[in-house]
Design brief:
With about 90 residues, this protein is mainly alpha-helical. It has two helices and four strands.
Length: about 90
């Protein structure tokens, strides 16, 4: 069928690479993916240990992050959150 796959990040076209080279490229890509994942996990754990908030505060109603990285209540938004909870109850 001569159907190929083009890996844009690695700039690999499977129709233009032999199977041995493709296996090596794929193994390298897998290892890089694992390495990135471990680095991200390490960063998240380090932030947790230091007490820094890991929160998408731009999507979080009622709070924002202060300059020191600590959550700060936004009074206007806090009123909206209270109203939502009152209406729920």
């Amino acid at each position: 069928m001569d159907i190929g796959v083009y890996a844009e990040m690695e700039n690999i076209d499977t129709r233009k690479v032999n199977d041995s080279a493709l296996s090596i490229f794929l193994a390298m890509a897998q290892e890089e993916s694992c390495s990135k994942s471990e680095n991200i996990k390490f960063g998240i754990r380090a932030r947790m240990r230091s007490g820094k908030t890991i929160l998408n505060h731009t999507q979080f109603l009622g709070y924002t992050k202060g300059s020191d990285g600590v959550l700060v209540v936004v009074p206007e938004e806090a009123e909206i959150v209270r109203k939502i909870f009152d209406l729920y109850l």
